[in-house]
Amino acid sequence: MLKVERLTSGYDRTRVLHGLSFDLGSQEILGIVGLNGMGKTTLLKTLMGLLPVETGQIVLDGVAIERLPAHRRSRLGFGYTPQGGAGFPGLTVKENLMLASMMPGARTAKTIGEITSLFPRLEKLLDRPSGALSGGERQLLALARAMVRSPRLLLLDELTEGIQPSVTDEIAECLLSIHRFEKTAMIIADQDLSFVASLAGRALLIQKGEIVAQRTPSDLLADNVLEAA
Questions:
Q1: How far apart are the C-alpha atoms of 82 and 158, rounded to whole Å?
Q2: How many CA within 13 A on the CB side of residue 19?
Q3: Around Cβ 105, how many Cβ atoms within 10 Å?
């Protein structure tokens, strides 16, 4: 489905990614693990088109897309949930979801009922301003906003940061449901190794902008791979 070849990227004149290469299979869940500052967020932003590619390729179904802007990638089926969630705090949960369905680049939009079937907690929060939600609820809303557009690929950045373990488990259950019923591929960048291991078939360890190892879920649980990096 997705092939990344010798990818370099960064901010202004600061290069963060140094020649990353990896593949993502159709409907695969891939983890990206590493400490803060190692390039996880930069990688997801570059894949989404929010940061420019300096060199290398991003190939989707055999077609190079690294020069396409973010809205074009959205039309191709990319969905992105940034670190800390996203949305408009002055709008209700329902208004945020409706707005997401009308954004340029949207694919087939899901109804509110379809979204709340994937994220049951949001059903009772539809009329609440999103700015009044807890951190975990904001993350669920951010995921729901991304899923409104029926993406083929979800790029998920640090979903567990600052979230209670019980809500982390709920988010994992929602993602497994999405994967099971929507057949959505995912790249999950996170420091929570247990969370990644519960979802991903494999994980790549990123260190200083380079992929330095691949780990199975059992490896993530058995070894302190982040300290080892």
A1: 8
A2: 1
A3: 14
The amino acid at residue 129 is P
Q: What is the pLDDT of residues 62-87, one digit of tens each?
A: 999 999 999 899 889 999 998 877 67
> How many other β-carbons are positioned within 10 Å of the β-carbon of residue 80?
24
State the residue for tokens 């083929």.
152
Set out the domains of the chain in order of their start, with CATH numbers. 2-84+151-228 (3.40.50.300)
Q: Are 34 and 157 in contact (CB under 8 A)?
A: no
How far apart (Å, rounded) are the C-alpha atoms in residues 57 and 87? 30
Residue (of 39, 106, 81, 98) closest to 171 by Cα position: 81
Joined tokens for residue 133: 């939600």
Q: Which residue, among 59, 67, 74, 68, has the nearest Cα to 6 in the 3D structure?
A: 59
Give this prediction's pTM: 0.91
Q: Identity (one letter) of the amino acid at 3? A: K
Cα 125 to Cα 108: distance, rounded to the nearest angstrom: 24
59: phi > 0 → left, psi -120 to 50 → alpha, else beta; which?
A: beta
β-sheet bridge partners, residue 213: 205
